[in-house]
Amino acid sequence: MLKANNLPLGIELGEDYKSASTRLGPHDLLVIYTDGITEARNEEGEEFGQDRLLSLLEGARDATSELMLANVMRHLDTFVGPALQHDDLTCLIVYRRPA
Length: 99
Prior knowledge:
By secondary structure, this protein is of the alpha+beta class. It has a domain at about 35-95. It is built from three helices and two strands; from the N terminus they run βαααβ. A two-stranded antiparallel ribbon has the order 1-2. The longest helix is centred in the C-terminal third of the chain and has 16 residues, at about 65-80. About 10% of the residues are buried.
């Protein structure tokens, strides 16, 4: 997990964002997503949640980024069912395969 102490992008126009860098090692994942993914709710009002997202990603470690993303979105669609969503659902997955 990458940690940051800034507000999410777009909340405050004058926010002074700190920059940093990291290097992805073999088998590392970089997953960038909006809160619409983890805060998506089903008809009972239950959130999809970060734990569910992490579990799906851990369970697909041998897949490509494309297949991981498809798996997340398929499970998310099944989870929310016909419940209306009120936020965007954006997710980017980068997986560094071993050399």
